[in-house]
Each structure stands twice: as C-alpha cells, then as structure tokens.
Specification:
Blueprint: H1 3-14, H2 18-38, E1 41-44, E2 48-55, E3 58-61, E4 68-71, E5 74-81, H3 83-89
Antiparallel strand pairs: 1-2, 2-5, 3-4
C-alpha cells in the first residue's frame, strides 16, 4: 500500500477529505520522527514500538573484489509490532 492509497482508504472510512487525512498523516510522521530523535522510543498501543538502535562500525568484505570495507556506525529505526497486531495477521 502506498501513502496515497492509505490516504484514500482512511478518507473513505472516516468521511474526511483526502487533504485533511494527508495533513494528519504528515503530522503523525513528523511527530514520530521528532520523538525518535529526542526520546529514541515511541509506543503506540495496538500498533507497536518504534525505537532507535545504534549499529556499531564494522568491517565487511566486498563479494565482487574481496576488498575489506569499513561501514561507519549509524542509528537505525526498529519496529516491534504489538501482540494484537501480530495476532491479527496470523
């Protein structure tokens, strides 16, 4: 599902205009992003937990040339689905 398809679906289910739903969705994404930067964890009951984990610097091998490459450390976003969500798709 694309962002546009999600907006269309939510608009049809709620009776809101697509432009209103898009504003809410954009605000949701911006707020979650801001909170991940600040607090590094966002919990949404029924959906799951977004968190930031640190991936340390590591050395990998280029499979084509065999050359060793150092990949720098970086932060990655992780998502752990809520039990309700996991149960509903299984």
């Amino acid at each position: 599902m694309t962002k546009h398809e999600l907006i269309r679906q939510v608009a049809s289910e709620t009776g809101l205009k697509q432009i209103e739903v898009e504003k809410v969705l954009n605000s949701f994404v911006a707020t979650v992003t801001k909170k991940l930067v600040e607090d590094r964890k966002v919990r949404i009951n029924g959906l799951g937990i977004f968190s930031v984990n640190r991936r340390s610097k590591r050395t990998v091998r280029n499979p084509r040339t065999g050359e060793k490459i150092t990949v720098p450390a970086k932060n990655v976003v992780r998502f752990k689905p809520a039990k309700v969500l996991s149960d509903s798709i299984n």
